[in-house]
Inverse folding.
DNA sequence: CACCATTATGGTATAATTGCCATATGGCCA
DNA sequence: TGGCCATATGGCAATTATACCATAATGGTG
């Protein structure tokens, strides 16, 4: 007989809320344009018009993307005259992609291996 | 007159593909149940039946979540008789949440400050 | 070989995300 | 003040994600 369910759902150990919080952040990161903007912002603050040109989408689209990032607490904004300047609220996120990229490279290697078979 | 677009979209500096790759990973992380499973898997491999009980969703739902994680290259699976055992392909992801949680705490502090005003 | 346990997959209804247009808002300057 | 510039927001259509049910596929067991 197969071993079954040694671990039951333990809300103390795996509090549902924790993963909802995390998912909110991960969702905010789950779009190429937003990631592009974060990468650019890692080098310094930028106004919406610059980011719009960088991303190459409609200004309203970019504005909404920025709202998502702000809502998640990943960026913050300040007003400078008529412009809104966005900047990273934390720089620790940029480092995390080193790890992610490791996974990606690993995937690639396996794909190539699979193709070779 | 406002300063405009000092930085133009530089595909060398900000290659579109990089952010699509990253978004694929971020999307795979963008669900509470998947994050819960990853946290559990960080402590050791588990079969689908255990994960199903842990998550508390339909078995088919969990199976599809696992497929997403596998597709993203975050987990891998092996067969053991009738069971499929899933395990983390890399452990470096767990560390990344320390950073994310920092952001979350920062958000919370600001919310509290805002409420106090 | 029939049967049960474990997973995976197809179907489908519902919810969430995304993008662009149009438009509102608010600052700046002649 | 009138007009322009930079942003944000509402609306809408199209795509994507998610969940559950039913069911197929596969391995172990009596």
């Amino acid at each position: 007989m197969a071993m079954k369910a040694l671990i039951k759902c333990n809300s103390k150990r795996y509090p549902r809320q924790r993963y909802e919080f995390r998912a909110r952040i991960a969702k905010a990161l789950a779009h190429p344009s937003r990631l592009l903007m974060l990468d650019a912002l890692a080098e310094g603050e930028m106004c919406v018009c610059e980011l719009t040109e960088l991303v190459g989408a409609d200004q309203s689209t970019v504005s909404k993307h920025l709202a998502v990032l702000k809502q998640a607490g990943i960026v913050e904004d300040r007003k400078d005259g008529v412009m809104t300047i966005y900047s990273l609220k934390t720089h620790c996120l940029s480092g995390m992609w080193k790890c992610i990229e490791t996974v990606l490279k690993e995937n690639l290697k396996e794909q190539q291996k699979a193709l070779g078979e």
